[in-house]
Amino acid sequence: MTATVAGMLDRLHAQAFAISNLATHPSDERWRAHAVVWPRLALATMRALNNVPAGAAADPELVLVDSILQPIARNEWIPTNSDAPPANVPPDKRLVDMTRVLGGIADLLSIGLRDVVSDSTAILGLRSNLLAPVMVAANWSLATAPDVARNMTPRRHLQLVSGIGTAFAFVPVGLRPGQYDDIAAVPHTESSLDAAMHNWLDATKDALATRKGLSGVTLQTIAADLSVLCGTAAATTRTAIALGQLAEDRGRPVVEAISEANAKWREASRWPQTIYLGGVRDTGLADASIHLRQTVVDTLRDGKSWADPTVIAARMNGQDLASVARRAMHTAAEAAQLQQAAVTNLFFGKDQVMMASRSLEGATYMNKAVFTARRRGTWIPMPRYEPTGVEVYRAATTAANATAAARLLSVATARPAAAPSTPTAVDFTQGRIAVARTATPSPPAQRLTQEPPFGMGTGGPSPSPSGSSVTR
User: Which of 14, 110, 200, 254 could form a disulfide with 288 if both were Cys (CB 3.0 to 4.6 A apart)?
Assistant: First the structure.
């Protein structure tokens, strides 16, 4: 099953919301069960935060969070002369589960998004989604820790965690989505569109990196498949618009840009018959190409036209279609860059391309060997800047540039459309933990320094009556 950052965040916040509703009371045994987990929980949180590309050398927010979590991760938060928890204490299962999910998110974020510029709002939103559940865990552990002298230092550390987590949880839920939510780990054997695209990209990389030489069929296949990918992204984006998952005013320019890239790759796939590369046809790419096209047909097509949006949504098992479209454009942009580099190296590098002698034009290149080859109808080395090669290069470059531009527009749809209205009480909105807000929201970059709370912790959640909201 494809695992995405957004999906794992949903799971993490659901776990945190579940523990926030538990009745708590100080217990030395329960506190020990919590304490043995916190070093791993803090380390997993730090890994996830550090794998978010900051885009700037100096990041005071990350430095502050690291300074709070580092002592816990290094197990320095409990003094050595105190009654430290014994190593054989069974850890609390709920905190262990949260630690595993945080570790999975950290692993996914380490994959990253190639050539995507960091967006400050997306970074802040992702940090908020990571630290808000950690705040709930800290409050829960604080509620179980007996208020005695030996627990004073550990409680102070957890109060710091709760305080910084609460500050990030003030960021409205509507401002938290971003392009990093789309990062996914896709099993190769999965029967899905994501898996087909992932396997095709791996096969494309292998084909373009071969030492046996490239063939015209290989480059033509990749260009044609890039056209298929762009068509897939456009159709999926249109479906997201039709189903109300994406606003039309934001999605329509994206569809137009992707459709233009689709047309450019169709043009680039028309490989001239007068050029001969002499490479070996890559069977792995051929198999991946067939599988990709068949998956697109099974998922998105209905005969000779695109399937109805409701049919596509049913076939894709309720996935976020806009997210799938963005991943398609990430794949297309990466493959397009590799294709353009390969074509550039062929016609302007050290590789030698053969061409039909009778198609050579221009008196500059005519000599005795060329005239002999033209009379015999054989192949000759293509001169640099020969018009046929320049046209192939131009088509690949234009298509790659159009794909990069379409990808930028597609990535922009992951950002929040606008700042939402200020909620009066928020507990579990859109699958995310958030706290109540009463003040008028300020710009996201200023909120952490201008707004409370930095008073450290509440002592943990208290039992709530049935049906009442839990404000975090």
Answer: 200
pLDDT band for 461, please (50, 70, 90 cuts).
very low
Reported pTM: 0.81
Sequence-ordered list of residues with C-beta below 8 angstroms from that of 118, at least 6 positions apart, any chain: 53, 54, 55, 56
Q: Which two tokens stand for residue 170?
A: 């003030």
Range(s) of the domain holding residue 100: 3-178+418-450
Task: Note whether residue 467 is domain-resident.
Answer: no
Both 143 and 192 in a single domain?
A: no
* pLDDT of 161 strictly over 60: yes
The angle, 0 to 180 degrees and rounded to 10, between the axes of the packed helices 387-412 and 248-268 is 160
Sheet holding 354-356, edge to edge: 275-276, 354-356, 379-381
Are residues 245 and 211 part of one domain?
Answer: yes
Cis peptide before 453 (omega within 30 of 0): yes
Helices 93-111, 5-20: axis angle to 10 degrees equals: 160
Task: Let me know if residue 461 belongs to a domain.
Answer: no
Can you tell me the distance from the alpha carbon of 4 to that of 181, in angstroms, rounded to the nearest whole number? 7
* Higher local confidence (pLDDT), 421 or 232: 232
Asked if residue 239 lies in contact with residue 321, where contact means CB atoms within 8 angstroms, the answer is yes
**Residues 87 and 141 reside in one and the same domain:** yes
Shared domain for 137 and 278, answered yes or no, is no
| Domain shared by 129 and 112, yes or no | yes
Percent composition of the chain: helix, strand, coil (DSSP 3-state, to 5): 60, 5, 35
Could you read off the pLDDT of 78-92 as tens digits, one per residue?
877 655 555 577 999
Rg value, the chain, Cα: 28
Read off the pLDDT of residues 326-377 as tens digits, 9 standing for 90 and up. Answer: 999 999 999 999 999 999 988 887 777 877 666 666 545 566 666 666 666 6
Indicate if 86 and 210 belong to the same structural domain: no
Residues 209 and 159 in one domain: no
